[in-house]
Amino acid sequence: MRISVVTPTLPDLSGSSGASAISGAAVALTVFLRRYVNDPRVETLELFLEPRDLIDPDAVRRMATTLLEPQNFGRGKLSIHPLYALPDIWKDRCERIVHTDDLHALARDRDLRDRFSTGPTAIACDSHCMGNPYVVDSLRLLAKAPQTSFDRIYAPSTAETAAIRELLIALRAPERIAITHIPRMIDPSGLSPVGSDPIKRELRSRLELPSDGIIALCVGRMTPATKGDFTVLAEVFAQHSRAGQYLVFAGHEESQGYSDLVAQIAKRFGVEERVLLRGGFGLGDRGNLYRASDLLVFPADSGNEVFGQVAVEALASGIPTVGTDWDGLKDTIQDGITGVRVPTYSPPYLGRFDEMSFAADSNTTLFSRAQSTVIDREALAESLERLLNDGELRQKMGKAARELYETHFAPDLIYDRLVEGFGEQLEAAKGESDRERCERQRWANENSLAVPLSDIYRTYGSRSLFDHRHRFATSAKGMDALHGRIRVELFPEIGMVLPSEIIERLLSGLREAMSGQAILDMASRNGLPEDLTTFGVAVLCKHGYLSIS
Known about the structure:
Layout: E1 2-6, H1 10-14, H2 24-38, E2 44-49, H3 57-67, E3 78-82, H4 86-89, E4 96-100, H5 106-116, E5 121-125, H6 133-144, E6 152-155, H7 158-170, E7 178-181, H8 197-206, E8 214-219, H9 230-240, E9 245-250, H10 258-268, E10 275-277, H11 286-291, E11 295-298, H12 309-317, E12 321-324, H13 329-332, E13 339-342, E14 344-345, H14 352-355, H15 362-371, E15 374-375, H16 377-389, H17 391-409, H18 411-430, H19 434-446, H20 453-456, E16 472-474, H21 476-482, H22 492-497, H23 500-509, H24 516-525, H25 530-542, E17 546-548
Parallel strand pairs: 1-2, 1-4, 2-3, 4-5, 5-6, 6-7, 8-9, 8-11, 9-10, 11-12, 12-13
Antiparallel strand pairs: 14-15, 16-17
Helix pairs in contact: 5-6, 5-19, 9-10, 9-16, 12-17
């Protein structure tokens, strides 16, 4: 089995974007990829990246080091390609799972699979955000495509599973794609219950946190749109906590000025020394943050928060969570056992805010919905106050939290279920009839998402480069490059997609002038792709290695 992933972002995978700024979705994708590439059941993990992400060999090397375990280096387990190489790679008739990172990319990957893959290929789609209008666009296209029995959406929570089903019903395509609920894996490294108070004090000293007292931790990017409104939490904590109790916010500021707003609330209530904003923590400190804390508080209220992996990280660390009764937290917090779920009320139909969601930026839509999602402040205050003041209850819930993690959320358990699902998908894909496959491919070709750029731009220039009047020949500059007196210098992104073999063949084959059609005939005789040959002629003409007459 091969697993393909299209256009993940290289900085997120390599860690070069700054650890504290990496989103939970990027962390989750990295966890998936590490599992895939080091699994002996997976022949190869294929990553198709934007050409610009392949320019820096050090960044690519960092990514490989991030993903591969040492024993798997040099074994062909990780295959990295520029995006435009996908048609060539997928024509090998091999069995594949296409890991789609979110619902908004489902139509994209379905289009690519149906037009370019020649072997049994099934799509396994993760889900991160239902509030994005691009998700609806993607599923609307899926609703029109021929139905398959082998593609699946893997929803990380029961609430998300129900939400996707409701959306498909609204699109009049309730059975269009299978939906399976499997929790999302976390990276368990560094996440375990703290052994003793001296260890906890040592961790706090290392993290520059108060050595004594009770710490309630809130982990997440500082934004009221895509996580939870932390101003509510800051105000409730300020009114219902006492000396020796601290609230620590650990997360990158995503909305400018939001951290200052939280700090102003703390100052207004005179608790600025007990409400600590620490945005500089990186992924390497994540485990220590939980182990140094006594409980997690997570007031999720955004449609972007479909799972809440911080709650699972708290389970793994053996600390209770006070969270909202919201989406994935309904699965990850056992109310009264591993923590407390605070009643949370979804807004009703909001007229223009719903009707114009497609016209607004997705964060604007998420923000308006989050601001109209109401958390029971009295229940939040009561729950927070209770856990801040009852050490025996925290210990009891923390023990139950770790047990729930080991029985329901341990990565090995989740991954085995996922791979079992992949096997079922591939068996179904292999059973697809020739008629079904041809119908799927025909529909994709007739309804492709590809933009017909050649048709759109046909009238922009004087005439087509391959006009029958044009002849192409190797220029003096091209002859210098052919004989090694100079190098062919092109933008690095071009070098990632245009093979040197095509450049050399064009420079050597055009010592005598040829028409565009003659060049394509030459390419066909030599087994060169027509599209890359055409692209090569254009690029070499643009940079003076070929001349036009």
